[in-house]
Amino acid sequence: MTIGGSMSSGYCSLDEDLEDCFFTAKTSFFRSTPCKVPAKNDDGTYTGFIKVHLKLRRPVTVPAGIRPQSIYDALKEVNLADMTDKRTSFYLPLDAIKQLHISSTTTVSEVIQGLLKKFMVVDNPQKFALFKEMRKDGQVLFQKLPLTEYPLYLRLLAGPDTDVLSFVLKENETGEVEWDAFSIPELQNFLMILDKEEKDKIQQVQRKYEKFKQRLQQTLKEAGGKPG
Predict the structure, then answer these.
(1) pTM of the model
(2) What's the DSSP call for residue 119?
(3) Which residues, in sequence order, are bridge partners of residue 140?
(4) Of 130, 106, 118, which is closest to residue 56 (Cα–Cα)?
(5) What is the Cα–Cα distance from 134 to 152, expressed in whole angstroms?
(6) Alpha carbon separation from 218 to 122, 204, 213, 223, 224 (Å, rounded)
(7) Mean pLDDT in runs of 10 for the chain (228 residues)?
């Protein structure tokens, strides 16, 4: 997938400076300021904008020591991840938002691949899934979207209200972790993270019981100094 280019079945670009634009069934955009409506293609397809919330709770794998992607890299289809075999892991900001300009033929699979490429994530795309988030009667509901679904079509049907529909990228939870999908460096990194979390948890518990012990000792000391 390329920014501003064509793909196997659709178009997808990631625009950071664009404001909220949502294509609707009335062939118009809803936003706070006027927005230019793109012409409908001769083949009946159309383009529009969606926003995707990133809610990833596990670290992602990226190339180590690589500069951020520039506009030149994007236009020239330069894959920075191919420039080094070194890898590192880090956490993406929780609930970060990325806006995408896509076509009516862009699939969920292509949206996921486009997001991963934007952040230079080299993990297997199968580890991630796109969900639609809906709010109803004070409850937040999530539904996993099939890889062949068309997000812009869903946006068109739902209209611009994000309470009715919004898109969320999350880990692809299948009930059991598919460890075979991870590389050896990734597994080693997970072990390091788990080891650190375990040590932090142990220290928290030790501090908690140490304070409790001190309070008991202080109470016993005060009680011992009082007449019976």
Answers:
(1) 0.59
(2) T
(3) 135
(4) 130
(5) 16
(6) 55, 21, 9, 9, 10
(7) 40 50 37 43 84 89 66 52 71 84 93 89 90 88 93 91 90 69 77 87 92 90 71
